[in-house]
Amino acid sequence: MVLSGFILIFERPIKIGDLVEIMDVNIFGRVSSINLRSTVIVSLDEKELIVPNSQLISESVHNLTHANNLFRLHIKVGVSYSSDVDLVKRVLLDAADEHLGVIKEPIPNISNITAPFVRFTAFGNSSLDFELLAWIPDSFQRFDVASDLHFIIWHKFKEHNITIAFPQLDVHFDPTADE
User: Fold this and answer.
1) For residues 132 and 78, is the Cβ–Cβ distance under 8 A?
2) CB neighbours (10 Å) of residue 112?
3) Which residue in 8, 57, 68 sits closest to 34, CA to CA?
4) Mapping DSSP to helix (H, G, I), strand (E, B) and coil, where does residue 82 land?
5) What are the structural domain ranges in the chain?
6) For tag attachment on the chain, is the N or C end more exposed, with fewer CB atoms within 10 Å?
């Protein structure tokens, strides 16, 4: 157990202030202290979670701020098959452009940071599936910015008469079939 604390303190896979997500136990928050036996993580609800260091060493942990605070949002939406796909793309990009928290231009010294873009991901069972990808400067704000973008997209879709798809099933009865 104490060995795990030494690994965290000296190898520094996480450090105080990092935003971490422990996948298997659904813990998400900012590291506030690292001790020999446990690490304290403050959740989005300002609750202190005391996590044994052995868990941080043995389980899958995403360190969202190890190199920087940037985070890429993936906003997925499915629209009806009658939708104009070019209009959907334009509206999604307009939504990203409208939000002040979205990075609008590539960052020259970080090669993976791009302007927002849209992917047409699939011809789904009941929808044409798209994904808006947009970078934000603070990963701790990812849930708030994603929510804001959902609201903006909803309003823009209504404004442009774009229908968000929902699962549908057609059932046909044959009245001549024997029972």
Assistant:
1) no
2) 9
3) 8
4) coil
5) 2-63, 71-159
6) C
List the one residue out of 29, 4, 26 whose CA is nearest residue 18.
29
Euclidean distance between CA atoms 92 and 115, whole angstroms: 13
CATH class of 2-63: mainly beta
User: What is the pTM for the complete model shown?
Assistant: 0.73
Tell me if the domain spanning 71-159 has CATH number 3.30.870.10. Answer: no
Sort 60 into a burial class: Cβ within 10 Å, 0-12 / 13-18 / 19+.
exposed
pLDDT in tens, the chain (179 residues): 556 555 555 556 788 888 888 877 778 888 898 888 888 999 878 888 888 888 877 778 888 776 778 889 999 999 999 999 999 999 999 999 999 999 999 888 777 889 999 999 999 988 999 999 999 998 889 899 999 999 999 999 999 999 998 877 777 787 877 65
